[in-house]
């Protein structure tokens, strides 16, 4: 089936390498202890030698070896990756929340790069790029045929260098070039505000190194404005994940001290671990615990967590922990379903390997791999329904994804999603005929944000408009 729209979650340029990833950065490279398959390695050497001597034109040796390593790692699962010098630098920038680029949040549509949103104050924002703009060329290179990662690499570069983006603006039915000067972009992963007296909204768009500090500051600002907070909405919609320790810290902000947040299990002894709501489990370095600056009332304030198909990895850890401990009511739609942890192991001063080392489990022992977390209350994106959610890519749609151990149930869910996509594509075609102002989904956190309004209703004890289009994916009865 041809998929006209692919929404992989909102990601920022420079953050793509870390998207949909729960990453541990604390480990270091180890010497391999496993015996080497000598016969197969001899075959690899023989192929390398034949390519060097017999191929139609000379081949760069280093590139040949790098490509071989990349192929070996990428064959494992969608989240393991070999980092060369450039991609390793980009990955580290992404998890730090700083990178050099044009400053846009992107997805992919019809093989082109789609602007989800320009980052406020970025070069792209100042150049006039708009939501739903399609990028058709980057300098002299056509975007059609490039992967999202390849397109990102071409838009990145050194500070104060220029890149020419060719934009197709559907609303105006025209194409035009835009010259943008690259600069360092500082992404803001935490937003929040008092939405009405007594009630506040805090959104995490990704779990980065700065996210915990930014979260603590934002919560402090909210309580200064509204000391008697009656309810809080934690918005994790379209949060693709990020750092594991940041997810543990955000969970710990709401949970009693020392309760289990998440456990991991893998081949290595170090992969079998239980992370608790304690400073030693989330502090990246020695020093003061930023959570100590949070108001005590935060531990007890009524809490709703908003999630959707774009909530992945670290955001699923937080949602699962708060749900299992009955600390929050989860609302929205079923999450992405990425239940694996990647460890970054340096291979030298400027290369590394991001490899899947463990599955993670919620405090009650649930694995959400390729399943996702089901909210307590299913709520659509709009009053008319969750019309296009089926077009978003989930973990179970990714090639070579880790199984959750129930192949029959996975196959049934894949068939259901295929039917739902066909129906959503038809709705999308009808929606495209409407005026632009009627097609745009409301901004998160605004008065038109339907799911946020339902979350506030939940906190106030008022009726909630439950989903018209979503349903729980129940497991089929096992055959005896």
From TrEMBL:
GO molecular function: endopeptidase activity; serine-type peptidase activity
Basic and acidic residues bias: start-end ranges: 399-442, 470-480
InterPro entries (alphabetical): ClpP/crotonase-like_dom_sf (IPR029045), CtpA/B_N (IPR055210), PDZ (IPR001478), PDZ_sf (IPR036034), Peptidase_S41A (IPR004447), Tail-specific_protease (IPR005151)
Claim: DNA repair is one of the keywords in the record: no
Record region (Disordered): 399-446, 461-480
Family indicated by similarity: Belongs to the peptidase S41A family.
Name this polypeptide is given: Carboxyl-terminal protease
Species assigned in the record: Hylemonella gracilis ATCC 19624
Lineage of the species this protein comes from: Bacteria, Pseudomonadati, Pseudomonadota, Betaproteobacteria, Burkholderiales
């Amino acid at each position: 089936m041809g998929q006209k729209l692919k929404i992989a979650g909102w990601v920022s340029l420079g953050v793509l390498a870390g998207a949909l990833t729960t990453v541990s950065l604390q480990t270091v490279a180890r010497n391999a202890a496993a015996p080497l398959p000598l016969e197969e390695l001899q075959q690899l050497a023989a192929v390398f030698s034949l390519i060097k001597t017999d191929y139609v034109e000379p081949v760069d040796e280093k590139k040949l070896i790098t490509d071989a390593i990349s192929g070996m790692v990428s064959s494992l699962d969608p989240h393991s990756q070999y980092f060369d010098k450039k991609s390793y630098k980009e990955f580290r920038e992404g998890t730090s929340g700083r990178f050099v680029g044009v400053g846009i949040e992107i997805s992919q549509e019809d093989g082109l790069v789609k602007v989800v949103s320009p980052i406020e104050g970025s070069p792209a924002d100042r150049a006039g790029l708009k939501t739903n703009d399609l990028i058709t060329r980057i300098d002299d290179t056509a975007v059609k045929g490039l992967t999202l990662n390849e397109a990102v690499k071409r838009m990145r570069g050194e500070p104060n260098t220029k890149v020419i983006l060719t934009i197709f603006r559907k609303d105006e039915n025209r194409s035009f070039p835009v010259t943008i000067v690259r600069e360092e972009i500082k992404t803001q992963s935490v937003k929040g505000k008092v939405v009405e007296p007594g009630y506040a909204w805090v959104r995490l768009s990704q779990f980065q190194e700065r996210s915990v500090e930014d979260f603590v500051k934002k919560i402090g600002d909210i309580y200064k404005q509204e000391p008697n907070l009656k309810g809080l909405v934690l918005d994790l919609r379209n949060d693709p994940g990020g750092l594991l320790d940041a997810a543990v810290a955000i969970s710990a902000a709401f949970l009693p001290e020392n309760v289990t947040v998440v456990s991991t299990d893998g081949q290595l002894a170090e992969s079998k671990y239980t992370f608790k709501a304690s400073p030693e489990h989330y502090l990246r370095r020695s020093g003061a615990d930023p959570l100590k600056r949070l108001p005590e009332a935060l531990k007890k304030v009524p809490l709703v967590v908003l999630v959707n198909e774009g909530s992945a990895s670290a955001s699923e850890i937080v949602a699962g922990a708060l749900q299992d401990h009955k600390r929050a009511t989860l609302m929205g739609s079923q999450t992405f379903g990425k239940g694996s942890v990647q460890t970054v192991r340096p291979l030298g001063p400027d290369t590394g390997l991001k490899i899947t080392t463990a599955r993670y489990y919620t405090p009650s022992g649930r694995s959400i791999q390729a399943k996702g977390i089901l909210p307590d209350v299913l709520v659509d994106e709009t009053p008319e329904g969750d019309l296009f959610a089926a077009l978003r890519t989930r973990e179970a749609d990714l090639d070579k994804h880790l199984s959750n151990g129930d192949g029959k149930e996975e196959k049934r869910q894949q068939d259901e999603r295929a039917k739902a996509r066909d129906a959503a594509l038809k709705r999308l075609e009808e929606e495209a005929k409407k005026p632009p102002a009627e097609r745009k989904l409301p901004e998160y956190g605004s008065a038109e944000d339907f799911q946020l309004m339902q979350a506030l209703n939940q906190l106030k004890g008022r009726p909630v408009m439950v989903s018209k289009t979503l349903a729980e994916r129940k497991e089929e009865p096992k055959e005896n």
